[in-house]
Amino acid sequence: MSLQPSSDVTRAGVAAGLVGRPDACEGVRGALALVAESSFFTMAEPIDQHRLDEWVAETGAVPWVRVGVTFAGSFDGAIDIDLPEMLGTRLLTAFAGMGDGEGPQDSQVRDMMGEFANMVCGSWLTQFCRSERFDLTPPSVQYLKAGPPPQPRHVAGTVLAAIEGVPVRVTLTLLKGEPAGVRA
Amino acid sequence: MPVNVLIVDDSAVMRTLIKRVATLSEAPIGIMYEAANGREALDILEQHDDIQAVFTDITMPVMNGTELLREIASQNRWDHLVRVIISTDGSAARRAEVEDLDVRMYLEKPFRPEAIRDVLATFV
């Protein structure tokens, strides 16, 4: 697990003690693993920044996608998932059970990646703050030309994993308020 | 006798998945209607009186799942509908919101395919 402390805590309106929340990041890692296993029948293997950098160097300038979901409740924030576009296509095939010859449409890949982020965010919030209600926005999907995008600002935590050997970066941004921690 | 269901989710891929799982469950499923939000779902319910079950997400644009279920609960002609929620939001607060809406089962996403099969087994 890699934590990326926010560089400007004051502007984010996040209390100093909030920077680097291992409990929150472990929860996000758990949600990612749960979604990968339940919906895509695969594993989300923890990796480090070095492995991510190696993969990027080996594969060259492949297009990436950033999928983001924001949430509002007792605290507000966002989860962004950065992944190579080719992984999105593979995940759709696993998710929807497409067979050979069933080429996915771009709209389907986009839809599926949005649902992927939606499930990771929702699953994390449900487990992390089970008693509370949060409202999620529809996911946003941004296509990027090459390489992983820069991390969002004011990141509270980062989770790096590999799905099918392909790196995925999940960042948690806390914008307002503070989670009290794992609650039953 | 086959059971006709209405699947309500703003994700077309998720609707496809639910349909596929329902088909593979070997439950006697008849027609599977689809809607992308609660408003579309109500339109379909108005047009088709042969639907026996509604599977709905909560967070959707135009009309969300809670609003849809409230509308269904307000009309006697839809008392027979089996109501199932499939949502990423499994919080106690959200569950409490739908407590009085006669929901048969609340499935959290991500769900395993067997969960859909098991839900269908309760009323098919």
Architecture overview:
The complex is a heterodimer of chains A (184) and B (124). The N terminus of chain A is likely disordered. Helices cover 38% and strands 26% of the residues of chain A. In chain A, β2 and β3 form a beta hairpin. Chain A is of the alpha+beta class. Helices cover 38% and strands 23% of the residues of chain B. A five-stranded parallel β-sheet of chain B has the order 2-1-3-4-5, with helices on both faces. At the A-B interface, α2, α4, α5 and β4 of A face α1 and α4 of B.
Write the layout of secondary structure elements.
The complex is a heterodimer of chains A (184) and B (124).
Chain A: H1 9-12, H2 22-40, E1 44-46, H3 49-59, E2 64-72, E3 76-84, H4 85-96, H5 106-128, E4 135-136, E5 140-144, E6 155-163, E7 166-176
Antiparallel strand pairs in A: 1-6, 2-3, 2-4, 2-5, 3-7, 6-7
Helix pairs in contact in A: 2-5, 4-5
Chain B: E1 3-8, H1 12-24, E2 29-35, H2 38-47, E3 53-56, H3 65-73, E4 82-87, H4 92-97, E5 103-108, H5 113-121
Parallel strand pairs in B: 1-2, 1-3, 3-4, 4-5
Walk across the major sheet of chain B and give the strand order: 2-1-3-4-5
Would you count the extended β strands of chain B for me? 5
Task: Report the order of strands and helices of chain A.
Answer: HHEHEEHHEEEE
List SSEs of chain B in N-to-C order: EHEHEHEHEH
Spans where pLDDT lies below 50 across 5 or more residues of chain A:
1-19
Q: Which of globular, elongated, flat, extended, rod-shaped describes the shape of chain B?
A: globular
Characterize the biggest β-sheet of chain A: 7 strands, antiparallel
How many helices of chain B? The count is 5
Helicity of chain A, as a percent range: 25-40%
For the CA atoms, what is the radius of gyration of chain B?
13 Å
Strand count, sense and barrel status of the largest sheet of chain B are: 5 strands, parallel
Helix vs. strand class of chain B: alpha/beta
Strand portion of chain B, in percent? Answer: 15-25%
How much of the sequence lies in strands of chain A comes to 25-35%
Question: Could you say which overall geometry of chain A the principal axes of the C-alpha atoms support?
Answer: globular
**Quaternary organisation of the protein chains:** heterodimer
